[in-house]
Write a structure and sequence with these properties.
- This protein has 142 residues and is α/β, with parallel strands linked by helices.
- It has helices at 19-22, 27-40, 53-62, 82-91, 129-140; strands at residues 2-7, 44-49, 69-73, 95-99, 121-124.
- It has five helices and five strands.
- Strands 2-1-3-4-5 form a five-stranded parallel β-sheet, with helices on both faces.
- β3 (69-73), α4 and β4 (95-99) form a beta-alpha-beta unit.
- The longest helix has 14 residues, at 27-40.
- It starts with a strand and ends with a helix.
- The protein binds 1,3,4-trihydroxy-5-OXO-cyclohexanecarboxylic acid (DQA).
- The site of 1,3,4-trihydroxy-5-OXO-cyclohexanecarboxylic acid has 10 residues, from loops.
């Protein structure tokens, strides 16, 4: 089982940005948490972060034929990007949408998720543990 974990814009600012919403763990903390969790589960994992929509589309396209599952937190592109939705639909790889914060209890503009239409599951509001839950889901439902 080979998983790709993708983080979108501003997730590299974890630990600095709005700790009330996103907590105090840094992006580096998140990377090592995911890597050690996957190592313990004997799951192969790669991580990718970009602030650029087209680069996220490229990363999803390149996953075709390489990865068995994708965990993605598209950040603000969740609420705007049909291109990322279409990329996930194109590759047809089981994909779980993760949000660190409880987006459903925040601003109205965060209530729209385009990518959700192509995802097998959505996890919100569980902090960075949500990524581990997504990994569990993909490994248990392969
Ligand atoms: C987020 C929620 C989004 O609304 C926001 O733009 C982010 C992070 C989350 O993880 O809770 O960048 O995806």
């Amino acid at each position: 089982m080979k998983l790709l974990v993708i983080n979108g814009p501003n997730l590299n600012m974890l630990g600095i940005r709005e700790p009330d919403h996103y907590g105090k763990e840094t992006y580096a903390d998140l990377v090592s948490k995911i890597k050690s969790y996957c190592e313990h589960k004997s799951v192969s994992v790669e991580l990718y972060q970009s602030n650029h929509e087209g680069d996220l589309v490229d990363a999803i396209q390149k996953a075709y034929g390489v990865f068995d599952g994708i965990v993605i937190n598209p950040g603000a592109y969740t609420h705007t990007s049909i291109a990322i939705l279409d990329a996930v639909k194109s590759v047809n790889i089981p994909t779980v949408e993760v949000h660190i914060s409880k987006v459903e209890e925040r601003e109205e503009f965060r209530q729209i998720s385009y990518i959700r239409l192509a995802c097998v599951k959505t996890i919100t509001g569980h902090g960075t543990d949500g990524y581990l839950e997504a990994i569990d889901f993909l490994t248990e439902n392969k």
